[in-house]
Amino acid sequence: HDTMRPAREQHERIKMRLRLAGSSLAAVARELGVAATTVTTVSQGARRSRRIEAGIAAKLGVGPAELWPERYSAPESTPRHGGDP
C-alpha cells in the first residue's frame, strides 16, 4: 500500500547509512541486547522503541528526530497545557 512506501524507503536508507558507517541493524541489536528482528521492525516503522531508535541514530551520529521526523514531531511531543485530562 502507498502509505507503507515512505517507511520502507526510509528503512532502506537507514540500512544503507549503517552499512556506510561500517555497522548494521544486527550490530545495533547485539549492542542493545535485543533481537535483530526487533530492531528491524522499529526501523521499518512497524513498532516504536525510543531506546532502539536512539541506538540506531547514535550509530549514525545523529539524533532520532533526524531519522524519523514524523515520530518526533507528533502533537503529543508538544508541551502540554495544564489541567486537561
Provide structural commentary.
With 85 residues, the protein is mainly alpha-helical. The protein has six helices and no strands. It has a single domain (4-72), classed as Orthogonal Bundle (434 Repressor (Amino-terminal Domain)), CATH 1.10.260. 62% of the residues lie in helices and 0% in strands. GO terms for molecular function: DNA binding.
Q: Determine the CATH topology.
A: 434 Repressor (Amino-terminal Domain)
Strand fraction equals: under 5%
Radius of gyration: 14 Å
DSSP helix fraction: 55-70%
Order of helices and strands: HHHHHH
The count of β-strands is 0
CATH architecture designation: Orthogonal Bundle
CATH class: Mainly Alpha
**Count of separate structural domains:** 1
Overall structural class, as computed from helix and strand content, comes to: mainly alpha
Shape: globular
Low-confidence stretches: none
Domain Ner winged helix-turn-helix DNA-binding: 12-78
Protein name: Ner winged helix-turn-helix DNA-binding domain-containing protein
GO molecular function, one term: DNA binding
Pfam family, one: HTH_35
